[in-house]
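Marked as duplicate of an earlier ticket. Keeping the data here for the record.
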Amino acid sequence: MSSSSLWQRFQQYFLYYRDLGFSLDISRMKFPDDFFEKMQPKIDQAFAGMRALEAGAIANPTEKRMVGHYWLRNPALAPTPEIRTEIEETMKRVKTFAADVHAGKITAENGKRFKHVLLIGIGGSALGPQFVSDALGSRRDPMDIFFFDNTDPDGFDRVFEKMSNELAQTLVVVVSKSGGTKETRNGMLEAEVRFKEKGLPFNKHAVAVTGVGSDLDKYAEKNSWLARFPMHDWIGGRTSVMSAVGLLPMALQGLDIDDFLAGAAAMDEHTRTQNVIQNAAMLLALMWYHAGNGKGDKDMVILPYKDRLALFAKYLQQLVMESLGKEKDLDGKIVHQGIAVYGNKGSTDQHAYVQQLRDGVLNFFVT
């Protein structure tokens, strides 16, 4: 393609949201000129599906559950007054709890202020908070945050060493929707043992984020933990970062959760427009569909060049692969579809496996 043609294509397919400082360039994707026209029936179907989901339609026929992470950043969209109230009350409680910890109204048993947060979770219950903490945190944050996201005993020890054994000033946040996730329970039990060895009452340091009535919820109530926050049954782990799962550790770390939610809500406004060429989410979905022939024939490579976005590849990997990786479609038809996602950091990867991407089998596309 000539340079003039590339420039013309760039002008046509470069999208910029000035108010968000966000841009998307799909001009180098090799889709045909009539691609959008041919995809219009699927585009219409996707928009209709989104409207139904946001209105409270059952999205998971097996578990008969709604999918409502959209409502978290704009509770006014919630399908019932009860759900809206639940979201708003949880948000208030998160902000109040974090403010009380920072102000010294909630302290460790010895009266000292909490300095550290230890979040115990697995999958989306850890990946979301980890990504946000790494991307937005700074040395000026009022509390340091650490994670148990595996069951490796050596990993536990390394985290405790990083906290300089200051367990007496450590707040533990245990996250599990079901309350029965074995990896999370193992991490919690390991922390309990360590606190006991130091002569510290674990319940005076512990907070639960879990489903109402779950095993963890009952355990935390029975043992008089500091607080319990709900993880709604219409929220999945991979989309939970804007619920108490992500907002509580963010608020404790000192990040502005109001701005975080406002930014997400603003992006929602942009990505609900049915003008496809102005809808970044729809454009990305269409490009992924085109690159993978509609069923993931090629892998997705993501190469963030910002150190703060190093975990973005892992976060997107879970979000995409857990969402799209399916054996059957909603009609029960065998499809075996999904998109494999991998990546790390751009500069590092350029001097590692990008050699194969440049010269090897063309079985990938770059986001």
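See parent ticket for discussion. The chain has a mean pLDDT of 94.
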